TrEMBL record:
Residues annotated as signal peptide: 1-18
Family in the record: Belongs to the sulfatase family.
Domain Sulfatase N-terminal residue range list: 78-491
Protein name: Arylsulfatase
Keywords: Calcium, Hydrolase, Metal-binding, Signal
Taxon lineage: Bacteria, Pseudomonadati, Pseudomonadota, Alphaproteobacteria, Hyphomicrobiales
A GO term, aspect molecular function: metal ion binding
CDD domains: PAS_like
Enzyme Commission number(s) from the entry: 3.1.6.1
Enzyme class: hydrolase
């Protein structure tokens, strides 16, 4: 027995030695005790398992336990609060000369530094991918938003396991990590409960997620997730708004972390929906801005420009770029247009201020816990320039303009009193957007010019950054945030994560600028590209293509050849902050040099193949559970299926067949629906009568309805639609049948041309969020009978 025991112990000893790693870790506390902690090298994640350093005998009495130390960040590593708002250009925030008060951003700037040459990619998903990976957007698979993903490495909307996020890195180095608000970095074709979840926030290193997956959502009835589960917190709460709810959730989470593990640093990634459309502030905030924009967009621009010079966030010699010829001046408008457009800006400004206020509550919660002094707060105002997606007129429903349509001012005036409420999904005129991007040209989507890419950013860490209220002019980009966080925390960029070799971090740390306002920019070169519009920055110069079509036209115009059909501009930024003086004609050799540099950078970072299509890419087939399928069958009650996993009837012929059983007291309720108040369809029973309702983006509703209520028992209901296509938004003929008999037949002139609402879901037997016709029913409108089978057959 003794020999067996000796051999057993020897084997254990050899096993322990074989797992021991070279290079001892620095351990605090008594080694092997439950309170022992350690930092790690961090280049290989997860950290290799700690060798057992206790003793194992034949029984516990003759053995000594040894607990592996808990992994912690380096001593003194700050908490990280990374904040970014949405669709806000350089001239929006009061902190950077705008007329909209942003006291939370002011607070960060006064405690730290304002950066006046900080840049995005010009679009939502791409900027966010660059921000959380430290790599260029094409390097991270996000050359465009996920809804336009194509099957190329730079454009497939898959961040990939070789691009570990800052959440993953900090989590594996001992931080508590969380993400609140907008995602838009999960492939749109992976939103469903079937997963996979490796590209969801919880699969990319964020241990807690509370937010929405897509580009935007209704703030009154959001398409919301907690980790990977849909939640409906607004039910029973008439005053609910996600902007406040998200702040409440983040504050509670931070307090819970502090109560459970006060010494564990946190990384909170806080990215609210504001101020992307829909502009959904509360009425209290809207009332604060009544009459504040009656001066119009041209005077607003002058005011912002003067403010920017006064507070020093643009150089004194900056020139205000000219107003574009294809946007109207304020004085040319009639009275109704001025009234409507002023209202649009009031609601947008209210949303900016409301969003900043709730951000301020989160910052204050950190302060209340006594942790703000050692928290690195990075507050970025906007993930791109102010959005042009509202068209020249604005819209009470963003889906209208995203589809490439416009709604007349007279029709919009019907929504004047409810603008910003749950009855609208609104956006403002692009003329306001251009003004809010002062002093620059262009807007969101335009990567070639600073109107699309220049963001106001403030950074504070009171325990470390001492030039409180300072201004920094170094040229930087979203990809520089991750290396800045890594340097601040003393954590290495990993070369391998979860067994996968990592792409190098492409950003550079900004920490060098904290103590030296005059330090030369560590970033000397940066490319920009979106939808074929492109630019290249190098040592104070930038070469940029002239946009061949305005972004508010949403790709509805003919585009030139993406390689050879673009005109280029050239600017010396050391003398021309606003890109006002084009030197391309005077310096052709310099321009050619810059163009060659763009090609080199584009090849390096997966930018090719260039593509300037917009609507076409929205309709590109992508991997999903529906790819290649034309027939879908359901039974019972099912809700919450995202559009990417549901039958897509857009621009197709289709047949919907429902086998139902009607109860004795008559049938009532939803059979199947996609969409809601702002577009979609519903097939339902109303007072016993079958109804198919097609909601054309809340502009028109087409209705097929049976004359008679269905008697109790089993019935087969069919809606058959024959499209007049192929082509975008073609009309067609719909026929409603009951038990094989035609009960309604109608031809309609048009259908939704590109997208069903992205923040509504496919539901069977019930309707969630909003209904397609408020005059008929209110959600959830459950069907009171039973659905034996529901089939959707799409024509190829």
């Amino acid at each position: 027995m003794l020999r067996i025991g000796t051999l057993f112990l020897a084997t254990l000893s050899l096993t322990a030695i074989s797992f021991d790693r070279a290079g001892a870790q620095q351990i605090t506390g008594e080694p092997g005790s439950p309170s022992a902690t350690t930092t790690i090298d961090g280049r290989y994640l997860p950290n290799p398992p700690e060798a057992f350093r206790g003793q194992i005998g034949l029984d516990a009495k003759s053995s000594k336990p040894y607990w592996p130390p808990q992994i912690v960040p380096p001593k003194g590593a700050p908490n990280i609060l990374l904040i970014m708002t949405d669709d806000a250009g350089y001239g929006v925030a009061g902190t950077f000369g705008g007329v909209i008060p942003t006291p939370a951003l002011d607070r960060v700037a006064k405690a730290g530094l304002r950066y006046t040459q900080f840049h995005s990619t010009a679009l939502c998903s791409p900027t966010r991918a660059a921000l959380i990976t430290g790599r260029n957007h094409h390097s991270s698979g996000f050359g465009v938003i996920s809804e336009q993903a194509t099957g190329y490495p730079g454009y497939d909307s898959i961040i990939g396991v070789n691009n570990a996020t800052i959440g993953e890195i900090l989590k594996q180095n001992g931080f508590a990590t969380s993400w609140f608000g907008k995602d838009h970095n999960t492939p749109a074709f992976q939103y469903s409960s079937a997963g996979p979840f490796d590209q969801w926030p919880v699969g990319m290193g964020f241990e807690y997620f509370y937010g929405f997956m897509g580009g935007d959502t209704n703030q009154w009835t959001p398409y919301l997730f907690q980790n990977t589960t849909q939640v409906f917190p607004w039910i029973g709460k008439p005053a609910y708004n996600l902007t406040t709810d998200m702040a409440d959730n983040a504050i509670d989470h931070i307090r819970q972390l502090n109560a459970a593990a006060p010494q564990k640093p946190f990384f909170v990634y806080y990215v609210p929906g504001g101020t992307h459309a829909p502009h959904h502030p509360t009425q209290e905030w809207i009332d604060k801005f009544k009459g504040k924009f009656d001066m119009g967009w041209n005077e607003l621009r002058e005011q912002i420009f003067a403010n920017q010079k006064r507070i020093g966030v643009i150089p004194a010699n900056t020139q205000l770029t000219p107003w574009p010829d294809d946007l109207p001046t304020w004085d040319s408008l009639d009275a109704d247009s001025k009234k409507l457009f002023a209202r649009q800006a009031e609601v947008f400004a209210a949303y900016v201020a409301y969003t900043d206020h709730e951000i301020g509550r989160v910052i204050q919660a950190v302060d209340d816990l006594g942790k703000l002094d050692n928290t690195l707060v990075i507050y970025i105002e906007g993930d791109n320039g102010t959005s042009a997606e509202g068209s020249t007129r604005g819209t009470p429903n963003e889906l209208i303009t995203i589809e490439g349509m416009q709604i007349p001012v007279a029709d919009q005036m019907k929504f004047y009193d409810v603008w910003g409420s749950d009855k609208t999904y609104p956006h403002m005129s692009v003329a306001w957007s251009w003004a809010f991007d002062t002093p620059f040209k262009w807007t969101k989507q335009v990567a070639s010019h600073f109107g699309g890419t220049r963001q106001g950013m403030a950074m504070a860490w009171p325990a470390r950054i001492k030039d409180a209220g300072g201004i920094r002019t170094q040229f930087h980009h979203m990809i520089d945030i991750v290396p800045t966080i890594l340097e601040a925390t003393g954590i290495s960029a990993p070369v391998m994560v979860n067994g996968v070799a990592q792409k190098p971090i492409e950003g550079v740390s900004m920490a060098y600028s904290w103590d030296n306002a005059q330090a030369p920019s560590a970033r000397t070169t940066q490319y920009f590209e979106m939808f074929g519009n492109r630019a290249i920055y190098n040592d104070g110069w930038i070469a940029a293509t002239t946009p061949p079509a305005a972004p508010w036209l949403m790709g509805t115009t003919k585009m030139p050849d993406v390689i050879d059909g673009y005109k280029w501009e050239l600017y010396n930024l050391t003398e021309d902050f606003s890109e006002n003086n084009d030197l391309a004609a005077k310096m052709p050799d310099k321009l050619h040099q810059m163009q060659e540099l763009f090609l080199m950078e584009a090849a390096k970072y997966n930018v090719f193949p260039l593509d300037n299509s917009i609507l076409e890419r929205l309709l590109t087939p992508r991997p999903s559970a529906t790819a290649g399928r034309n027939d879908f069958t359901y039974s019972g009650v099912i809700s919450g299926i995202p559009p990417s996993n549901a039958p897509n009837i857009v621009n197709r012929s289709y047949t919907i067949t429902a086998e139902v059983e009607i109860p004795q007291d008559g049938g009532e309720g939803m059979l199947v629906t996609t969409g809601g108040r702002f577009g979609g369809y519903g097939f339902y029973l109303l007072k016993g009568k079958p109804v198919f309702l097609y909601n054309f983006v809340d502009m028109e509703r087409f209705r097929w309805e049976g004359h008679d209520a269905l008697p109790a028992g089993k019935h087969t209901l069919v809606f058959d639609f024959k499209s007049d296509g192929p082509g975008f938004g073609k009309g067609g003929t719909g026929i409603l049948k009951v038990d094989g008999n035609e009960v309604a037949n109608e031809k309609i002139p048009h259908t939704i041309p590109a997208l069903m609402p992205w923040d509504e879901t496919f539901d069977v037997g019930v309707d969630t969020r909003t209904g397609v016709e408020d005059n008929d029913y209110q959600v959830p409108f459950p069907f009171n009978g039973s659905i034996g089978k529901l089939e959707v057959a799409l024509q190829p």
